[in-house]
Amino acid sequence: MALPDFDGVQNKSPRLVDNKMTPHNFKSFCFLDNDHLVGCSNMGDLFIIQIMTVIQHIDPSSLIKKGSEMNNRTTFKKVLANRFGFVAVTDDILYFFQFKASKNKESGCKGTYHCVLKWRASEFKETRITSVSIQEGS
Description:
The protein is an all-beta fold. The protein has strands spanning about 15, 20, 25-30, 35-40, 45-50, 55-60, 80, 85-90, 95-100, 110-120. It has a four-stranded antiparallel beta sheet with strand order 3-4-5-6, with no helix packed on it. Strands 7-8-9-10 form a four-stranded antiparallel beta sheet, with no helix packed on it. A hairpin with a 2-residue loop joins strand 1 (about 15) and strand 2.
């Protein structure tokens, strides 16, 4: 699947992954109640898009958990919506993002997403998360 033509998405050059040249494209995405589309790319980028325009790009290097190997822990595999924002998943860490409304009305952006929790169970050490689902109570 080719990368959609969204304004502001950093379209990276293909890179070598598993001994083959891999183009930059969306690996997983979710739609949120506030009409935002959250997408993660196969190169580890998280984009929040509103009406075909990127309103926030989350730099994966800013989310590296202390003690994690560089270029290993922030390649997002999946994103899932929940009632307060979204969850991004790597091979062994869950990142919980919460929407925070903006106090600056002039910016044109109604708010941004902030990583409020990085969680890795001790049982996940030397294993991989192979699937994830969200069950929310009322």
